[in-house]
Amino acid sequence: MSLLDFSLPFPALTFLALGPFLATGCGTDDDNSKEDTGMEDTGMEDTGMEDTGMEDTSTPSGFSFECDEPDQVFQAYDLSSMPPELIDVPATCRAEGDNSWLYVADDVWDVYVDQDQLEAFMQSFELATPDGSINPDQGIYQNDTEVFGALTADNYGADKVYILAMEFAEYGGYEFDGYLYIWNGIPMFQLNAAIRPLDDPETASIMAHEFVHVIQQAYDASEEQWMSEALAEVGMVVNGYYTDEAWVADYAADPSEPLVNNTASVHYGAVLLFGTYLYEQFGEELMGELNQEPSDGVAGLEASLQALGWDLWFDEILEDWMVANFLDDPALEDGSFGYSFMDIPSMTIDATLTAGEQYQDDIDYSGVRYIEVTGDQPATLVVESTDALDLLYSVILMSDAPQVTTLTEEGPALVAYLDGLGNSYDSAVLCLSTMANTDFRVSLQQ
Question: N or C: which end of the chain has fewer CB within 10 A?
């Protein structure tokens, strides 16, 4: 699926490389897996394996442990090798909701999964989500479809959503949370029940993310990887889950990581922040429009904005987004420079300059660099680049009430006259991005 909360974010290996049947994947480093999954501390006695009482089939209204669907032999991936081979997974339908069938692989029933876990899982997917979701009285299914688009038998391929809980093999020290698999033409989510209990809030968060990928298959299966993951991350946010703090912290440590990245190494911290920013600035309406827009990536975002009457372009949003990531103060500029849903770590500053100093580096398309300048008297901030026309930039004048200004073109250079440096403010921060890979040099002159 996507990232999850683990201390060393999962690198380049994702399921995108495995072919068209997998929308996304997630893994954890085995060195951290015991702390993150809770399996060592939880144990079988903590998940109630000995005391399940399987004869009790009573459930809250909205789902039942009595499922009329037949047993199935699903195909799944053996992840112990890459590329993976297909294996058969015999499974029994253990719970049925208004919107879903939950199958459990026969070899994990009463080993990793019990009835109490099923009830908690179905409660989250069908009936209720945490405070902070768009509607705590609705489950993940209702909230995600309300925001991203409805599922029907025509656009999904079945009357209800298929979910399979099973055990995944490890690969190279990594454990995988789950992935989207196309079974008989129907998108279904296959979940690793061995990595953490089904009643763990992180499991519900995974489902909130992955279910957006299911909806995407019904509307725009060709969406670019980075945007697909950004929208799926919003699926977690609209359901009140924020379990990917480690990814956000990793991005804050190196915001030069490109946002727009269609390789296997999409940075989930970057796309979580960007997706959440779009959601908070433009609302649910943009999320649905964007998920259903036929064009993809940047073009799809711009088309969606235009369709809703927003005369904005990607580069304009990127400029405000990099300021919001640095300031994270939703009280500024009518909420444009911060987040309401979450507090984020401070972004790493690449260099701090005083008068007479300079800094030069490269910057990738949609990566962000922050350069601080300090001084006790007015100075001029100068930015030079081989491709200055591709640069995106803002300058934050740091004080108790930060102000945001810009650079102006003067010949081949971009400049900002910091007349208040050392008086109205003691420092300024240059926020720099680009629409094409390029180099740059920043200097502070007096």
Answer: C
Give residue 411's domain range. 351-445
d(CA 96, CA 103): 9
Let me know how long the chain is: 446
Element (H or E) spanning 360, and its range? strand 358-363
For 381-425, the pLDDT digits (tens) are 999 999 998 999 999 999 999 999 999 999 899 999 999 999 999
- Of the candidates 196, 221, 246, which is a domain's last residue? 221
| Residues 47, 50, 54, 57, CA torsion sign | negative
Query: What angle, 0 to 180 degrees and rounded to 10, lies between the N-to-C axes of helices 268-292 and 140-148?
Result: 70
Q: Coil, helix or strand for 306?
A: helix
Distance between CA 238 and CA 236 in Å, rounded? 6
Q: Which residues lie closer than 8 Å to 55 by C-beta, 6 or more apart?
A: none
Q: Is 272 helix (H, G, I), strand (E, B) or coil?
A: helix
287 — pLDDT class (breaks 50, 70, 90): very high
Interval 136-170: pLDDT, tens: 999 999 999 999 999 999 999 999 999 999 999 99
C-alpha distances in angstroms, 316 versus 302, 311, 312, 369? 11, 10, 7, 16
Domain count for the chain: 2
